[in-house]
Amino acid sequence: xxxxxxxxxxxxxxxxxxxxxxxxxxxxxxxxxxxxxxxxxxxxxxxxxxxxxxxxxxxxxxxxxxxxxxxxxxxxxxxxxxxxxxxxxxxxxxxxxxxxxxxxxxxxxxxxxx
Amino acid sequence: xxxxxxxxxxxxxxxxxxxxxxxxxxxxxxxxxxxxxxxxxxxxxxxxxxxxxxxxxxxxxxxxxxxxxxxxxxxxxxxxxxxxxxxxxxxxxxxxxxxxxxxxxxx
Lengths: 114, 107
What we know:
The complex is a heterodimer of chains A (114) and B (107).
Chain A: E1 4-7, E2 10-13, E3 19-25, E4 31-38, E5 42-49, E6 56-57, E7 64-68, E8 74-78, E9 87-94, E10 104-105, E11 109-113
Parallel strand pairs in A: 2-11
Antiparallel strand pairs in A: 1-3, 3-8, 4-5, 4-9, 5-6, 7-8, 9-10, 9-11
Chain B: E1 4-6, E2 11-14, E3 19-25, E4 33-38, E5 45-50, E6 54-58, E7 61-66, E8 71-76, E9 85-91, E10 96-97, E11 101-106
Parallel strand pairs in B: 2-11
Antiparallel strand pairs in B: 1-3, 3-8, 4-5, 4-9, 6-7, 7-8, 9-10, 9-11
């Protein structure tokens, strides 16, 4: 039982390149989330998907797009990477409600933009 | 004012003592509260959830919630070196995390 799986674990990009971070969960959870974590800033929500077919902006959505491909998978895309997007990205999922279920996190993707 | 505030620490506690971590939140209507532990270089892991006023105990951990005063706390009894980590407070209605408190247990 893998829980929440993120790929890749590490990535280095040049400014202006694009890439997609992949996330999949095998817990049959309805809700999925993308966060970024920067030193001293805590976890900040980028986008979330309360259920299959829906996505909503979080606190810091600019420069990102998401796709909820099916119930299991939620991807995050950087169309034109910028150095300010250097961060650790975490995907998470939770059970049946956005508001009252704890979140389970993947291991993270460490992304550097040069 | 930040929606969820924590003292960033570092907080140093002798082994075997009680570690007390605090968190305040701004939205009086919040209903769900969680404490996560994050070791350096790792992802957050859930250690406690609390939804009602009062105390909730799980092993060496006790979460305390006071909605009138808008604070939630985490007590760790008989602190162990393995408890050294950053502890994140989360308020789920807003999907908002505090910046975390770094706890160091001194052997």
